[in-house]
Design goal:
With 159 residues, the chain is mainly α. Among the domains are: 43 residues; 68 residues, no CATH class. The chain is elongated, with a radius of gyration of 36 Å. The protein starts with a helix and ends with a helix.
Length: 159
């Protein structure tokens, strides 16, 4: 557009008798206007950056460690947390008995940095053991509960 304006001014200069200096001032003034106008348009262009939704880290007070660890794993994956930062982040959200256990765990480590995997194993042993919930259900069989349930089911099926 500046070139078109310059060409038009060049054609008009013999008619109006304006000097080349005046024409240069007009052209440079228009170019300044265009650059200001262009930059203000660029500022108005919305930015479409994708923002991740905020996720809240779960607190842990010593109950249902497997559920807490599952939610931790989800959070770390979504937020792309490095392995070296996982323990520090998780420890911030410990409360009550779990916090006291964590402090003793760090003292017993004697300045050795535990990995997240070692920490998961230790906290699982302390607050929930390594037993799978399905294994716990199968252990109920040893207590005779399955026998009672099967009798009830048989009784209901004969009705």
């Amino acid at each position: 557009m500046a070139q078109q304006l310059e060409l038009a001014l060049h054609k008009l200069s013999p008619i109006t008798g304006s000097s080349s200096q005046g024409r240069d001032k007009q052209v440079s003034g228009m170019q300044g206007y265009e650059s200001r106008h262009r930059s203000s348009q660029e500022e108005r262009i919305p930015s479409y950056k994708i923002h991740k939704p905020k996720h809240f880290f779960p607190t842990f007070n010593g109950e249902d460690v497997h559920r807490w660890l599952y939610k931790c794993a989800q959070y770390f994956e979504i937020e792309e947390i490095a392995n070296t930062d996982k323990l520090r982040i998780a420890s911030y959200y410990l409360e009550g008995v779990a916090l006291y256990w964590h402090q003793n765990f760090l003292r017993s480590a004697e300045n050795q940095r535990a990995t997240w995997e070692e920490y998961v194993e230790a906290i699982s042993c302390r607050f929930g053991g390594q037993q799978d919930p399905l294994e716990e259900l199968m252990d109920l069989n040893n207590e005779g509960i399955w026998k009672n349930i099967s009798e009830i089911l048989i009784f209901c099926g004969t009705r």
